Amino acid sequence: MKVGVLAVQGAFAEMEAYWRAQGAEVFEIRQRADLKNGMDMLALPGGESTVQGKLLNDLGLFAPLKERIDGGLAVFAVCAGLILLAEKIEDPGSRDATRPETWFGVLPVTVRRNAYGRQLGSFRTVGMFDGQPDVPMTFIRAPAITAVSPDVGVLSTFDGAPTAIRWRNITAFTWHPELN
Amino acid sequence: MDDRQELNRNLAQMLKGGVIMDVTTPEQAKIAEAAGACAVMALERIPADIRAAGGVSRMSDPAMIKGIQAAVSIPVMAKCRIGHIAEARILEAIEIDYIDESEVLSPADDVRHIDKTKFAVPFVCGARDLGEALRRIGEGATMIRTKGEPGTGDVVQAVRHMRKMQSEIRRVVSLREDELYEAAKELAAPLDLVKYVHENGKLPVVNFAAGGVATPADAALMMELGAEGVFVGSGIFKSGDPAKRAAAIVQAVTNWQDSKLLAKLSENLGPAMVGINADEIETIMEERGK
Questions:
Q1: pTM of the full predicted structure?
Q2: B residues 200-219 lying closer than 8 A (beta carbon) to A
Q3: How many Å lie between the alpha carbon of A8 and the closest alpha carbon of chain B?
């Protein structure tokens, strides 16, 4: 399997290592020319969604990636990547007025940014993921999924709210499977 | 290592490939966020002005820092003086995302740094070489940056520190296992951390460049030399067109290998900060705290 990892900002090296460890062939997407590589899956790593979203636009990556996602390309997204995909984004604090309402806006969920507060609210837990017990889950200034459309499959939860989901071609996490 | 330290190292991992910008007002913080900063450093005076003003330089007013926390959604960092445990406690109390125990401020303790393992909040510390970096990590720092010579706009020290650190890492990797004890002694660094570097060929925490980065080319240079991201201090808001320069530096960090794009990004940015030659100044901040 060939995985294209969005490598404009954030923990993309960790995402690359995660997929390599699973035997995938991995390449980085930093600009349009990198999309000449065909891929079986797009991986969106953790980082700052505001930075990644801005760079997607500045580097001309947004439209071609959106086209592929809409066309059914498999997507694996964590944390900031989930925010980039969400149909609705809530900000607990102030929101940069120059920022678009959403980025790709394809995933029928509502995501609340920095839902557990600042870095002191970051935490680790273990839980059930996709029927598998005791999976370590690391939440770093994590978002929360506050609403999902009925056809979204829930793979893990914390405090009753979904923390990992699957919908059509997309698997997305509020925590970091690539860090453990 | 406890969970808190690991979580704090993890936050630094999320900042990689990004630019952390010094800001002194909520308005500047908003400009930085809109330009693509992955975090901001809240401080009353940027290093160039600290240098110009002279005198004792201290932690910023918590009210000013809280104003910046309220203005942006990205992580907010702030500086405390080297060894100033109480300033660090205050910053932790206002839930800062990262504390920079910084040589840019006047040191409160001229021998010891803060025992950062006693804090829940993360710390970034400056280092000029591998030994200094590993000593800070041993004290609990979960992110390292070069020290540069802040406020000068001269990148020469940041280059010197990053090159030295990377070259010392390569040397440690090349040693025989039974030579690591002597290496730890020479580096004045904890043995377990020297062993980590020997086995992994890198620091156990994220390593950014800081000090004197003023242009997209400076940022690309530091990435080429092995930085995982950059701090830009005086370089942005002391320049002619801060928003444009900030956005250009952000793109340069992502695509530091693409010289055609760097050429485009470097066009028409207006005047860079004037800067002072690092070897013509009297107060050498990088010497503070070893």
A1: 0.96
A2: none
A3: 5
